[in-house]
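dude i think i finally got it to work??
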Amino acid sequence: MLSCVAEGGEKDGAWLACLIGGALSSCATTGEVLVSPILERVTHGTCENGSVRLHYASLGEGPLVVMLHGFPDWWYTWRHQMEALAADHRVVALDMRGYNLSDSPAGVESYAIDVLTGDVLALLDELGSERAVIVGHDWGGAVAWSFAIQHPERTAGLVVCNMPHPGCLQREFSRAGSGQFEAGQYARDFQAEGAHEALSAEKLASWVTDPEARALTIEAFERSDFEAMLHYYKANYPRPDSPPVFPDDPRSLPAAARVAASVLMIFGLEDTALLPSTLNDTWRWLAGDLTLVTIPGAGHFVQQDAADLVSRSIAAWLAR
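look at this
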């Protein structure tokens, strides 16, 4: 167990910095492969959602696959999957707002889930694509779920890495003995005023095991906005007194709120922030088919911890 309590038991900036560093390093495994040469091959572009400009990296030609990263990360987290899929697809990885080369608008409201979903819609419009397979991890996975629910006509398929359906996550928060409420304490700490002041690029990149990739990630985080990163939690992560968004019983969910697209879920079972019990009964929230791949030994950042298996699983699923 981490010992991160400052003198007198107060949770100050030093405590939060310790928590962040420990939590992120505990999410990492030793499975990451060496840095990819993809930086020399991708093309870069921007799209705009209102006044917010968003950066993306693109590789390959063919049906569109959009990749959305989570916290704390940037488009480069998908390098292995981009390389694997680019032979048959155009793979576009977005820098989410607040990160790397994308804008960081002020205000918590600028990071509400509907606004983030609008960023993906703006990206598809910029690329001239009516539909895309949406791939997301962590907060990017939450946005992917939201996009598939709100825009089924533009969702050709959904791939979610280590982010449960929000209805399942809501259930586990309130279920006695699940452990998920306790596992989410770090997120409630992120909601505290001034929490971003304890962050640093080096701490945030501590989960990246490859030295070259870590150096690039530190550079990306130095271009990022730490307060914006935590606005995702302030705007969207449920607080203890938050009213439920989803019904307790999935059978009472309106048909239009079910995910119509085919879904592939990939989950690293060593995740300590989002527990495997959140996967239970996912199918009850869906209208389409579900494929679930669980990976022992991989943690929260499964797209890097088990890069080859994740890439092969997505490629095989796309080729069905």
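Residues 7-318 form a domain with the Rossmann fold fold (CATH 3.40.50.1820).
im so relieved honestly
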